Amino acid sequence: MSYFTDEQAREIWKARWRGETVQSLVGKYGENQFRLYEVWEEKKNEGTRLIAYEEFKRENPEIAALTNPIAHIPRRKVISFPKDNGQLGLFA
Predict the structure, then answer these.
(1) d(CA 15, CA 51)
(2) For residue 44, with 0-12 CB atoms within 10 Å meaning exposed, 13-18 middle and 19 or more buried, which class applies?
(3) 41-78: per-residue pLDDT in tens?
(4) What pLDDT is recorded for position 2?
(5) Is-contact 74 41, C-beta < 8 A?
(6) Which DSSP string do the residues of 10-68 spell out, in sequence order?
């Protein structure tokens, strides 16, 4: 697995704002979907989001006006278990 270049990362950002699906980008770049999220969470290729947004505003001003250019924020559901014995407490 390789990382994206800064040019590819800018294209990935613009594709996201145009509404392309993750699966279409996986097919286009032949990379794992988690590599795309590394770009969108700015774990890799830092700074490409702002450059891509400036380019996107010039290329597609009508779409850019409706676009939220923030980085992807993962929404993870945290499951916590009770402090007692869990299911074993049901049998007591």
Answers:
(1) 14
(2) middle
(3) 988 889 999 999 999 999 999 998 988 888 888 787 77
(4) 66
(5) yes
(6) HHHHHHHHHT--HHHHHHHHT--HHHHHHHHTTSSSTTHHHHHHHHHHHH-HHHHTT--
CA dihedral sign of residues 27, 42, 48, 46 = negative
The sign one gets for the Cα dihedral 7, 24, 77, 35 is negative
For the record, the structure tokens of 26 come out as 């996986």
Question: Residue 8 belongs to what H/E stretch?
Answer: helix 6-18
Whose structure tokens read 């939220």? 68
Query: Using an 8 Å Cβ cutoff, are 4 and 44 in contact?
Result: yes
Measured between alpha carbons, how far is 5 from 11 in angstroms, rounded to an integer? 10
Query: How many CA atoms, within 13 angstroms, populate the side-chain half-sphere of residue 76?
Result: 4
